[in-house]
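Entry 14. Structure prediction run on the chain below.
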Amino acid sequence: MRWRGMATLLALVLTGTVAGCADSNGPARDPLGTQGRACQAVERDNVAAILGVHFDTSGFAHTDDTDTCVLEQVGAAYPELTLAISGTTADALIFQATLTPSGATGVPELGRVAYQLVSPPAGADSGSSLELGWLSAAPRLVTLRYTFAPGAADADVAAMNPRLVALAHDIERQVTTGPTLG
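Output returned:
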């Protein structure tokens, strides 16, 4: 049951990401600045300050009630930072029962309820990924994923985890107080 809910959320994220390539609201890649509602929550200078990683291009999409933003580095497939924000009527129980993947651990004090998950590389062309998902204090489902370049050491993944949580807290503040995000 959990994977079915997670698969649905992942489909929304991937649909939004792919749709960004043909989004009529603006260019799919914007080397000069971030655009789109989700991209407003992951402004690149702020991301660089928190994560210690500089991204210089972004892609965005809006599909149904999901806004997606992907930050990347020009000329490199990874690392990649993906943020998806969807409206929801789910409560904490539904989130935990249907949207929290197996193997995930809780993240205290992030939104109403949150999880974190470390996943092995999805294929030879990517590294491990860190994912945070949470039910925002605003009526939003939020997923934040950092995918490493191939060959990233376990120590690098572990070191990124608290920084990604810090970025998630910053995004939660923006989602709940930002005029265009909440």
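The longest helix spans residues 154-177.
Filed with the rest of this week's runs.
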